[in-house]
TrEMBL record:
Name of this protein: DegV domain-containing protein
Lineage: Bacteria, Bacillati, Bacillota, Clostridia, Peptostreptococcales
GO molecular function annotation: lipid binding
Keyword Plastid assigned: no
Keyword Secreted: no
Keywords of this entry: Lipid-binding
Classification via InterPro entries: DegV (IPR003797), DegV_C (IPR043168), DegV_domain_contain (IPR050270)
Organism per entry: Alkalithermobacter paradoxus
Pfam family for this entry, one: DegV
Amino acid sequence: MVRIVTDSVADLPKEYIEKYDITVVPLDVIIEGKTYKDGIDISTDVIYEKIKNGVLPKTSQVTPHDFVEVFDRLSKDGDEVLAVLISSKLSGTYNSALMAKNEMKDRKIEVIDSKSVTLGQGLLVIEAAKMAKDGKSLGEIKEKIEEKAEKIEHLIIFDTLEYVYKGGRISKVQYMLSNVLNLKIIMTLKNGELIVKDKVRGRKKAIKWIIDYINSNNLDLNNKLVGINHANDEEYLKELKSASTERFSPSETVVSHVGCAVATYSGLSAVGIYFERED
C-alpha cells in the first residue's frame, strides 16, 4: 500500500484528508517568539487578528526529524510512502524530506517537489491519493504526479503583496512595481517561484481577467479537477466560483480556506483558482 504525505501548505479540505487517508505534516508558525503547529494549535482567525494589529507571523519549514517520525510510522509495517510537498523554491520543507528519506534507506519512500503552493499543490496530492486508493504502484504514482506538477496553473488574486514580500517570497522589485493603491495583483507560479502576472483595478475586473485569461489561452476546465480557495474572504471565493462555473463544468471542484502558513503571506484578502493545463 502507498501512503500519501503532504505538508500543511497544501490547504486540503478536511473531508479530502479523511476520505483518502492523507497524512499532513504541519509547518511551524511563529508569532512573537512562540511557535505553533499550523492547523493544530493555532487557527487562521488568530493569524488575521495578528496581522490587523500589525504583528507579522513567520513560518518555519518542517524539520527532517518531523519527517523521519512520520515516514517511520507509515512505513514500519511494510507500506510505501510518497510525499508531495511545497515548491522547493518557496520552502526548505522538500529538502528536509529528502534528508529524512536518506536516513531511511531500508524503506520505500519517494519525495516530490510539487513546484506548487496552496491548493495547486493540494490538487496534486489528491490525484496521488486517488491513484494510491486505486492500487497504483509507488513508481506509477510518482511518475504521473511529477508529470502533472509541470502543468499546474495557479491564478491568485491578492489585495496586497506586502506580506509575501516581507516573508521573503518575492523580490523587492516585484513588490515595488505592484504596490499601487487599489490595484488587485494577479500572481502565478513559474518553475516553482511566485511571479506577478498582471495588475488590475477592482475585484470584479480581477475575476474577469482570470476568466478572459483562461478563455484566450484555450485552457479547458471542463471535466477537470479544479481547486478554488480563499483567505479571509468567502464572498470573493463565491464570486470567483460563480464566474468559473458559468463558463466551465469541472468534473470536481475542491473548495478550501487557506491554512495558517499560507495566511501569513496572503494577508487579509486573497482568492485563487488552480487546475491542470493540457500542454
